[in-house]
Amino acid sequence: MRRLAPSRSAGRLPAALLARNSLPGTAPVGLRIAGLLVAGAAILPLAYLVIVIAGSASEAWDAIWRDRTAALVARSVGLTAAVTLSAIAIAVPAAWLTVRTDLPFRRAWAAVLALPLVIPSYIGAYAIISALGPRGFAADLLGVTELPSISGFPGAWLALTLFTYPYVLLPVRASLRRLDPQIEEAALGMGRTPVEVFRTVVLPQLRPAIGAGALLVAMYVMSDFGAVSIMRFDSFTTSIYTSYQASFDRTSAAALSALLVALMFVILWLESRSRSTEALYRSTPGSQRQALRIPLKRWRVPATAFCGLVASFSLVLPVAVLVYWSGQSVAGDVDFGEIGSAAANSLLASGICAVVAGICAVPVAVLSVRYKGRFSSGIERLTYIGHALPGIVVALALVFFGTRVVIELYQTLGMLIFAWVVLFLPLAVGVVRASLLQVSPRIEDAARSVGRTRSNVMRTVTVPLMASGLLAGCALVFLTAIKELPATLILGPTGFETLATEIWSATGSGFFEGAAIPALILLAVSAVPLYLLTVSE
Amino acid sequence: MSATGQNSGVSAITCTGLAKSYGRVKAVDGLDLEVERGSIAALVGPSGCGKTTTLRLLAGFERPDAGTISANGRVIVGVGTFVPPEHRRIGVVFQDYALFPHLDVAGNIAYALGRKADKERVAEVLRLVGLDEITDRQVHELSGGQQQRVALARALAPSPDVVLLDEPFSNLDASLRDRLRQEVSRILRETGVTAIFVTHDQEEALSVADTVAVMSEGRIEQIGSPEEVYSRPSNRWVAEFIGEIEVLSGQVREGRAECELGSVPAGDAVGDVDVLIRPESIAVSVQASRRSVPAEVVSRRFFGHDQLLALRLGSGRVVRSRQLGFPTWHAGDRVHVTIDGPADVTSAASNGEAAPSSVN
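Structure tokens for the assembled complex are given below, as produced in the milestone run.
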């Protein structure tokens, strides 16, 4: 009965302002400068690549318009499309079987089928080629000297599919669990068979999750270097690497890099579009009821066989191969001193990278959470650029930068760390930002109001409260950097071998025993974050 | 605080022309406020009226676009002056308490005491709020009421001149809320600190504060003692916000405003007026009297200690009357109605609301 003048409701504050995660006013100058420095560093490789290309525009143009380039685009896009489709073909049935049916050992299958995520593509490719390749484990076992070559497109396709399908499996599983089972029950009640219901009701609702996962796979494949180079498949990244090594033709490597980045941005653009439509499909909240589980009946055996087949190629085979070759290597002529120093190098470089990335992430996260605005969101977006840049492109750009601008830094560990920080800063910023979002700004206000200065509050309240997030961010960067291959190959100081380069060069020369133990160490290290993730769930 | 500004000595807080916009939204729009030392003041208004922004301006978490703020005669916000929050001697109790989750109870208090912190001082502060038993408890182990008292203790620890409380009781369940209202106002009075609290609950404002400032659209509509604001609202909006009210149109003749329920003193109003009457000022009787008008009970809602009657007057207009729980009235009873208690008369044009009340 109380009537308010029309302007009263119009004068209400928007909810976003009332929520007040952000502090008012502009950020302190020191913070803004730190943010600008980090953003500048993140954008430097791409910016310098553009400068290089602009400096010899006509050569770059010629390099792009060569016949070879069209074939290269066709091959890379073809491989990306093939891997993406086959990843979907494996992931969607696997997700459905492990969420919605009475598949025996459902939960165990779900965990096992997600595990290949931790296997870097080059270790997977190494496992496949050393098992199924001409001089491989299967040939040994069968007692034949020659098997048909798996290298080229089939090998790259198989390796990348087997180790990227979890990127689709995980979101689809999550989405399946969130679906409102009542919608399906309603459809069943209208007399539709379970298969029809899946096609007409479930699948359309899964489309955003499939799309999001597929685009992650596409970005992975497009920027992958390890698997395609081991499988000797000519893709963008391997062509860039070859052009770079043939050092007289670096302009062409730069031009190809620019084209690759353009393709990555296309995929990113598709991804952002798929995200904006996602909300349309989300089921209403409150439907926490258990979904109905479909009895497999006579399909139990084929369904189990399907999961078993996927798991045996994507998990059992690599692990078995690594163990087999490790056994061989202990007997053979493997230089353990070399592996030890490679492991030490890996630990050292990734450790430094993790600390640097963590330090760089703090000002970006504080700006984006506490001082929302155009300046902060610009800074934050620039630091996410690494997400769209293949490692080989960043490395190549920094080679140009190192040889033309900062000669004294070229061929130093600093240059490699710089490349890694650019590549993995988005991971650190994401985690640190999330942890800062958990800290109520009113806690900082409260500290101010009892007489503490802004910098004192930062030191005594904000940093202690976000410490665990910062640590997690550093750990994530560490575990990702330790697996990195192309930038390490290109930017590592002469004679600087890491576990990743050790695996790559040993496999490249057919010395499978030499790659086994480094690969096992890397796998063990990579399994840690997945384990932590499942424990925290 | 004083509506007329006749207080002796320096006010604890004086604001003039305070303004703050977010984009095109004017959160605070030319606010004037004066709070007397040692008193408890309430800023009450609907959500989005700018009361929390006002509090944050006072604390120094926001910079106003215009206006000045003085605390105890010292300018803390003015042209070329902006004292940061840590130097204002103004404590804050937040709605969600905002306790430091990485410190225990004693740690929270010691943090606020800063360099002066020692075991004895911490214990002293906690004794003030009745929490000296739980000093080493972690913050997340405390109940809502305990967290609130820790937040209050932390705000009081550095002996501030003023304490600001943002919706201090809204996160507590109803039975606890009433006890804590009494408890908190006792502690505030014991320490003699000046307190300003923000609430959307008019009952809370009336029962806890010495002075109530009713806010709407970034301005103060009325400021005064709880009794003043309740019984002599400055306009119809305040009247409706601060409680149930019946608004009847009337005309002033010979110093009295005449409306359908009878006549009341008109004050200095002339011409067409609105007569504002609280339901408890509408008396009901079976007996007719010289001033009474006949009515019929349309419906009755029983609340235990009181009951709310809907009465249809001769014109068909329905008004509400709040009566004690006894005697029992029934729908259909023929009764006689008089105005018995304060009523307020405002010029009909003063509210800027042309249409008649929608109660009919």
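The two ends of chain A are 49 Å apart (CA to CA). Residues 1-20, 278-283 of chain A have pLDDT under 50 and may be disordered. Further analysis is deferred to the final report.
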